[in-house]
Amino acid sequence: MHTNDIKIKDYPLSNEIKRGLSELGFKKPLEVQSIVIPKLLENDVDLIVQSQTGSGKTAAFAIPICQKIDVEDESVQMVVLVPTRELAEQVKYDISGIGKYKGIKCVSVYGKQPIEIQRKELRKKPHVVVGTPGRTMDHLLKKNLKLNNLKYLVLDEADEMLIMGFGEQLQKIIEKTPDSRTTLLFSATMPQEAIYLSERYLKKPERIEVKPDNSALNKIEQIYYKVEALKKVDFLKMMLRREAPRKTIIFCNTQEQVERLYDIMKKWSYLICRVHGGMKQIDRMSTMAAFKRGHYNCLIATDVAARGIHVERVTHVINFFVPFDNENYIHRIGRTGRVDQNGVAITFVTEREESRFEELEKFLGYEIPCKGGHVQRRIGKKEQKRMSKKNRYVAGSKRGVQLQINAGVVNSSFTKKDLMQAIRKIGGISNNDIGKIEIKGKVTNIEILNEKERLVYKGLQDKKIKGKSYRVRYKK
Question: 214-364, which class in CATH?
Answer without folding.
Answer: alpha beta
